[in-house]
Write a structure and sequence with these properties.
Strand 1 and strand 2 form a beta hairpin. The protein has 295 residues and is α+β, with helices and mostly antiparallel strands. Helix 2 packs antiparallel against helix 3. It has a 5-stranded mixed sheet. A 4-stranded antiparallel sheet has the order 1-2-4-3. The protein is elongated and about 80 Å long. 30% of the residues lie in helices and 19% in strands.
Length: 295
Amino acid sequence: MLESNRLSREEIMNLRERGFYQQRESEYFNCRIVSGNGKITSKEGIAICKLAEELGQGEIAFTNRQTVEIIGIGKDHIPELEKRIKKVGILLDGNGLKIRPIVGCKGTNCRYGLFDTFSLTDKLHQLFYVRYYENVFPNQFKIAVAGCANQCVKPELNDIGIVGQMVPKLLTDKCIHCENCAIVQLCDKKAVYQENGKVHIQTEKCTHCGLCIGECPNGALSEGVLGYRVYVGGRWGRNPKPGKPLSKLILGEEQLLSVIERALAIYQDKGQKGEYFADVVQRVGIEELEKKLLG
């Protein structure tokens, strides 16, 4: 960067909090825009591309937290870009000690998805990202939602990770003890087995993927119970650490939202400045924390 354009640390941090991240060894910035679970409307996309063409270097990029960046904005163009972004109604993702944009998989449209991930992440976005935007936490707080046991968005590496689960409900009165049970053949985790002709499910081996639901031609596994496996205290970065799963599945969206709300309250109350939620989980202990989260 040229000496005449060199910014102070305070100026750079101020711009980061507003959503502008300086490129390495450059006088240019990237503008980070919040998407809705990796989705933008065609109208927003057109506006973003136009801004990239007129005020940036004609390129956009996507981050690992599903935000969109306009590449290469000169410092003098930042006020104009902020003004025009506001007119479009798009949020900028500023850095700071706060909740980061909610990340979710495409479970709504995925063949493996067990529930409407778009709907849930939109709700989490409004309840926690938007509503808590001005709240200061001990450190960043990340939430991720996976629609099935494949966990494509690595929810266990977030402060709160949510995984859709489908607990199979075996209707033994409909089982006719097929010699070659379709469900036994289907389950690659060997959670389903036959003994004396009867079908059994080993709960300790079942990953609740839901793939067996509806596959029995006689309807012995036509139903399942939707739940959420919740991980707490995971983290990314230089010292990645998987979160700890709560011992009980969360049944119902209302209870799930309550668990997240309580986790944030505990983090604000117990966390020391600079601490990650993982540090609080370790200090409080998962058993004690679980009592507080589940009431």
